Amino acid sequence: QVRSCIEQLNEFIHQGEDLDYFITQQTFFISAKSRDEYEERSSEIKNQLLKRCGASLPATSIVAQSPAGSMDVVLELICTKASTEKKVSYKSHSGINYTVVEHKDYKAVHCAGLMGTADDSITQASERAFKLALEILSQEKLSIDNIIRQWNYIEDIAIVEDVENAQQNYQDFNDVRAFYYDQGNFKFGYPAATGIGQNTGGVIIGFIALSESDNISVTPIMNPGQVDAHKYSEQVLEGSSLEKCTPKFERAKLVSIGSRNYIYVSGTASILGEQTMHVGDVEKQTLTTIENIKRLFSEENQDKLGLKFDVS
């Protein structure tokens, strides 16, 4: 299945005789029931990628999140069209591959696979991941403020076996994220972000960072039906910590580059206000989630925020 994914990947970027697309970021979702199985399968995927890509390996995450049906692996791609107006470079730092797309007056950095070791706690893995992120951003003359979209995969994200004496893994991650985000000012709002569970692997982070330019504007998009996640009250934060940090992300981010608009939607759940709705009913939760996404893009919300973008 891994070989099939890579063969399809190769056919996709070479649709004609020439290169049609550059892969900037890729995520393999694999079935893995234990950390040993995850490490073994990850190693196999990385070896096959190195044989195929060599030094031109894009930013890559391998996430222990079992695909549906009988599949053991699926591949998600973020790509950019090949063009003489942009330069795509594949780089690495401390064993982490990342992609830089340079345009005339700005650049985008795609990074993935930032994680800890098998022996790390969630807090330790989160710290390792963020330290690597800061190092790569610094190497590219950027800072944590430049992140516009982030993906956070967290082992057993919401499980708390003993609420009185144990911390929720997601809360541990949020506390570390808040510490590192406090080092920036985020004048254009926090990143759009997704925090979702994985079966094993500790913590894995990926992101897109964008340099500033006179031709670029970045605007947070609030959801009128939801409290901003970074303004949640302590009552909805899980765990035993006395000072629990809120999740630092925006509901969506609008990135305007010249006349082009790009909207990055955060991981969106069946939350109204700050409360989870329809617990245990996946159908109603899905419908609520869809309504939340539609509410982000509604003309009423655009008017309220003083924005105008086409999502047709």
Mean pLDDT over all positions: 91
Biggest sheet, strands in spatial order? 4-5-6-9-7-8
Shape: globular
How is the main sheet built? 6 strands, mixed
- The topology string of helices and strands comes to HEHEEEEEHEHEEEEEEEHH
What is the end-to-end distance?
35 Å
Beta fraction of the residues? 25-35%
Low-confidence stretches: none
Q: What structural category do the secondary elements indicate?
A: alpha+beta
Query: Gyration radius, to the nearest Å?
Result: 20 Å
Instruction: Give the oligomeric state.
Output: single chain
Number of helices: 6
**Which percent range fits the helix content?**
25-40%
The count of DSSP E runs of length 2 or more, i.e. the number of strands, is 14
Attribute tags:
312 residues; three-stranded mixed β-sheet; 6 helices; 30% strand; alpha+beta
